[in-house]
Amino acid sequence: MEKKIKNNGKVFNPFKKLMIGIALVSVFALVNVYVGVDGLVGIKNSIRNGLLGFMSENLSTMFSSLIVLPIPVFMVYAAVSGTYRIFTCTQYIPTFEDNTPGGVPVKGSDSFPNINRVLSYRESKMCSMSPERAADLYVGSAKIESLYSNYNNGPEAQRTLSYIESKLCSMSSDRALNYLANKL
């Protein structure tokens, strides 16, 4: 467990991951035992009764539910995240453990439906073109394939690909193809 793996300049510590997982599962168990469902209902009712002097019954019921809501949400998070950390303490999973500025990088061809749509449109459009015009279109829009095929798999490349994906969603297939081929 003392083994530390360096990835992207960061040090991975399996022992720390295990301890955080045990702490999260322990907090979940303690809150579940000491508070439980009946305790949550009791907390909600006492808050509702305290708010009845200031507002109507329906409004106080709604506010008391909203005030108590973070407790069960945290309990679900603690149970799921703690269990995940315990069972994967020796594994480094970049998708879940790397914090990139653009969020979690999305990988795989199924994750980019708009790019799939435009590339399929490009294929069908090349069927009706002469080989020379088809080659020009292919070369003009081939840059996206290096990103799309995970050739450049860095976080900035994934962030750029995600931006292109979101930009394509509002475009028609023909306009999106022109955008990819730098003809706009």
Which terms would index this structure?
2 strands, 184 residues, two-stranded antiparallel sheet, 68% helix, mainly alpha, elongated, single chain, 2 domains
Describe this structure in words.
This protein is mainly alpha-helical. The protein is 68% helix and 3% strand. It contains 10 helices and 2 strands; from the N terminus they run ββαααααααααα. The model is unreliable at 102-108 (pLDDT under 50).
Topology:
Blueprint: E1 5-7, E2 10-12, H1 14-34, H2 36-51, H3 57-68, H4 70-87, H5 94-97, H6 113-127, H7 131-141, H8 143-148, H9 155-168, H10 173-180
Shape: elongated
Q: Give the integer mean of the pLDDT values.
A: 80
Q: What is the SS-derived class? A: mainly alpha
Quote the distance from N terminus to C terminus: 54 Å
Largest sheet: 2 strands, antiparallel
Q: Please, how many helices?
A: 10
Q: List how many beta strands DSSP finds.
A: 2
The helix content is 55-70%
Low-confidence stretches: 102-108
What's the gist of this structure?
The chain is mainly α. It has ten helices and two strands; from the N terminus they run ββαααααααααα.
